[in-house]
Design goal:
By secondary structure, this protein is α/β, with parallel strands linked by helices. The chain has helices spanning 70-84, 111-123, 136-148, 191-204, 218-233, 253-262, 273-285, 301-307, 329-340, 348-365, 370-378, and strands spanning 35-38, 54-61, 88-89, 92-100, 127-132, 152-155, 184-186, 209-215, 237-244, 266-270, 291-294, 315-318, 382-383, 388-389, 403-408, 411-417. The N and C termini lie far apart (45 Å). The model is unreliable at 1-49 (pLDDT under 50).
């Protein structure tokens, strides 16, 4: 399906039109990619506010053409948040533009798209905050570009530790910050906690032999490394490790045969839904019924929709809270369902919280200047859906949460918070 022809169920305009309307929400779709713009045009019956107070927030996410998966879960959380804020941040009118960073037929990241999105945002002086990417490999591309422009960036999903911490790859994290100043923040816990949480959870379930299938990028290999390090300490035997490309759906027969030969108790997968679905299907076809656990990259309702009954029993670690763990679970779910006609995914929560943090930072800054907004974000204290957010000197959230999730009766359920030591 062509993403440019998606039914967004909103008003669309031509490429060069930037006229105002009396609608609260206005989306614009143009070019060869999806672009989503939400404009505040004032409350019902009011005059249009002074456009000199208009500022912009840009998000870049991997978006599937069928509007499923963690990218859309995240995007819709962002959209709900800005609508509930009436498209305002303090005295500022907010325009929200959502850019797609994936290919035309799926939600697999295209680094060149993320690069183009980051450059576009960096060049627009009205953009004060960049939300994204959800993928660590996308942030690896975008952070240096945005950093040179002094543009604050909040990721709702990137968990690779080396983006902010030393000790993971040569030159990290300094190579991502050419200005020497930190401009990147994230609202999710990093993989140096997620990996251990998965290993301890496996141990707590009596698992002894694990086969790791890692995605070939900084997220997949970083999470695999973090899991493996703890596995060695707690005598969890890693009987094999194989690497696959993001979204790989061919040539899996050899991998399945190797997994079967090693007879593991658990397959630990460190990639995204796009690769998990064909792998699980290949395992089923090969009569491999071993338990399956993934990282947060597979935690989306879309995984269950694609796999059907084959999703039963799948486990995932998640670097936040699931919807049913929220204090306001029923209220948030109802508002989300009323707006989008579907239940929120787990990634809707960091999307929602990231947007509200961005709005709060802009309001607190009180000035439409990148440097002022960046400084405001450094010292932000915000009560979100998942809890109280603030950031350390690296830009990492101090709200450290790892949840265990599992599929039962066609739904994700929470095991609760997992131990990391």
């Amino acid at each position: 399906m062509d993403k440019d022809k998606l039914d967004i169920k909103m008003i669309t305009k031509s490429n060069d039109s930037r006229q105002s309307t009396t609608q609260t929400n206005c989306f614009k779709i143009w070019g060869l990619r999806i672009t989503l713009i939400v404009l505040l045009l004032g409350s019902l019956g009011a005059c249009q506010p002074d456009e000199t107070n208009a500022i912009r927030i840009v998000a870049s996410l991997p978006l599937s053409p069928d509007k499923s998966g963690l990218g859309w879960d995240t995007a819709q959380g962002m959209l709900l948040a800005i609508e509930e804020a009436n498209y305002q941040a303090g005295d500022f009118i907010v325009e929200f533009e959502l850019l797609d960073a994936s290919g035309p037929d799926d939600d697999i990241l295209v680094p060149e798209r993320e690069e183009a999105n980051a450059k576009k945002a960096a060049a627009d002086a009205e953009v004060l905050i960049y939300l994204g990417n959800s993928y660590s490999s996308g942030c690896k591309v975008g952070i240096p570009i945005l950093n040179q422009a002094g543009l604050a960036q909040i990721s709702p999903g990137a968990t690779y530790p080396g983006l902010t911490k030393q000790g993971f790859a040569a030159g990290e994290p300094a190579i991502y910050y050419p200005s020497g100043e930190r401009t990147f923040f994230r609202v999710v816990t990093t993989d140096d906690m997620q990996g251990p949480a998965g290993a301890f959870w496996a141990q707590d379930q009596g698992m002894e032999r694990v086969y790791i299938v890692e995605q070939e990028d900084i997220y997949g290999q970083g999470l695999s490394r973090a899991f493996n390090q703890i596995a060695q300490i707690i005598d969890l035997n890693v009987v094999g490790t194989s690497t696959v490309a993001e979204g790989q759906n061919t040539g899996l027969e050899t991998l399945v045969a190797d997994i079967a030969a090693q007879q593991p108790d658990l397959i630990y997968y460190t990639g995204f839904r796009s690769g998990a679905v064909p792998l699980i299907q290949a395992l089923k076809q090969g009569d491999v019924t071993t338990s399956f656990m993934g990282g947060d990259g597979i935690f989306t309702p879309a995984l269950i929709e694609e796999l059907g009954p084959d999703a039963e029993g799948i486990m995932a670690t998640f670097t936040g809270l699931s919807v049913d763990q929220l204090d306001d679970s029923e209220g948030f779910t109802q508002r989300y369902e009323d707006r989008f006609g579907t239940q929120p995914g787990g990634w809707s929560i960091p999307g929602y919280d990231a947007m509200n943090i961005a709005l709060a930072a802009i309001a607190q800054a009180g000035q439409a200047e990148r440097a002022t907004v960046l400084n405001s974000l450094r010292y932000i204290n915000h009560d979100g859906l998942a809890g109280h957010y603030s950031f350390d000197q690296n830009g990492d959230t101090r709200l450290l949460l790892i949840s265990g999730m599992y599929v039962q009766d066609g739904q994700w359920h929470s095991e609760g918070l997992l131990r990391v030591q």
